[in-house]
Design brief:
- This protein has one domain.
- The protein is built from 4 helices and no strands.
- Bound molecules: protoporphyrin IX containing FE (HEM).
- The site of protoporphyrin IX containing FE has 19 residues, from helix 1, helix 2, helix 3 and helix 4.
Amino acid sequence: MLGTAYLWVKTLHVTFVISWMAAVFYLPRILVNIAEARDEAAVRQRLIDMGRRLYRFGHFIFGIAFLLGLTLWLYFHISGGWLYAKLALVALLLAHFTWAGRLVKRAAKGQPLPQPRTLRLMNEVPVLLLVGVLYLVLGKPF
Ligand code: HEM
């Protein structure tokens, strides 16, 4: 029996990953709006500022979610093949978030963005990755 401390660490872990996933889902949406607000400079600037703040906030939140996950893994000794597969998918989610953040910085420099259609397609990738992460951690299939 792992006790209350384990339960609190896991509760906080899930709370912070939910908050991070909100940023992972929302940042590409902001990018689509930046790409579509081509000629509206004020709207575009407001969206770029929002994107930048969300990107910074997202990295901070991920850091805490990661430390809590490490505590579950290394302090409470919860591990298995499922965790390594989960971490691989989490790395892809982090790569997607970093890609979106870098595009916001590019837009801030006035550099061109991918087409809104491409950005919309890329917007769906985190959903698929999250389903994989949750199946692995809840089912622990291997
Ligand atoms: C998108 C990122 C992540 C999501 C959505 C996520 C989701 C979850 C969920 C829902 C649980 C509870 C599972 C259960 O009660 O059976 C959990 C537990 C856990 N997570 Fe994460 N996690 C994420 C990132 C991480 C990272 C980065 C690590 C490691 C550094 C990690 C390590 C763990 C461990 C060891 C557990 C404990 C499993 C258990 O107690 O059965 N997670 N995670």
